[in-house]
């Protein structure tokens, strides 16, 4: 990329060794002749060679809202029958419908048997377990799930 086409405040894909990473250009340092950039992880990096800039990343437009249909949804039917629920949403629906703590393997079996979720892995119970544990860890008190015992989860 030409040095004249790199603009402060824009996001670019930059070569780093054999890989590429996304950075946002914060400023230009005239003393060192390098661009001061910030990675997605918040690290500050200096990029001296303009040839390392691969391309500009153009932000995607947010999806437009679709009107909600007046269809009544039963307990084990996905909200949109054309598209199955994600693993964590299916687990929440199963736990909310049963109203009791369940083991992850039971949650996975019910979600897959009812067709509300399609997980392609060999061990869907491990996938759902990881989803649940990650949501509890990341969201804390705002999580939709509670760990009630070893391998047992319930919906709030």
What is the element layout, followed by pairings?
Layout: E1 11-16, E2 19-29, E3 34-39, E4 44-47, E5 53-56, H1 87-98, E6 102-103, H2 104-114, H3 124-139, E7 145-149, E8 152-155
Antiparallel strand pairs: 1-2, 1-5, 2-3, 3-4, 6-8, 7-8
Task: Give an overview in words.
Helices cover 25% and strands 27% of the residues. It has helices at residues 87-98, 104-114, 124-139, and strands spanning 11-16, 19-29, 34-39, 44-47, 53-56, 102-103, 145-149, 152-155. A hairpin with a 4-residue loop joins strand 3 (34-39) and strand 4. The longest helix has 16 residues, at 124-139. The chain folds into 2 domains: 3-56, SH3 type barrels, CATH 2.30.30; 87-155. Helix 1 (87-98) crosses helix 2 (104-114) and helix 2 (104-114) packs across helix 3 (124-139). With 156 residues, the protein is an alpha+beta fold. The strands form 2 sheets. It has a 5-stranded antiparallel sheet, with no helix packed on it. A 3-stranded antiparallel sheet has the order 6-8-7. It is built from 3 helices and 8 strands.
């Amino acid at each position: 990329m030409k040095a004249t086409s790199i603009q402060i405040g824009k996001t670019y894909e930059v070569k780093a060794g054999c890989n590429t990473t996304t950075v946002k250009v914060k400023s230009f340092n005239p003393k060192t002749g390098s661009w001061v950039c910030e990675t997605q992880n918040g690290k500050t990096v200096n990029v001296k060679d303009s040839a390392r800039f691969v391309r500009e990343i153009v932000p995607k437009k947010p999806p437009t809202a679709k009107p909600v249909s007046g269809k009544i949804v039963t307990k084990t039917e996905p909200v949109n029958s054309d598209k199955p629920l994600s693993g964590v949403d299916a687990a929440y629906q199963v736990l909310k419908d049963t109203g009791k703590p369940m083991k992850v393997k039971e949650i996975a079996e019910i979600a897959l048997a009812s067709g509300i979720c399609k997980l392609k892995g060999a061990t869907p119970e491990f996938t759902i377990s990881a989803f649940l544990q990650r949501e509890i860890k990341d969201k804390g008190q705002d999580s939709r799930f509670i760990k009630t015992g070893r391998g047992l989860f319930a919906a709030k």
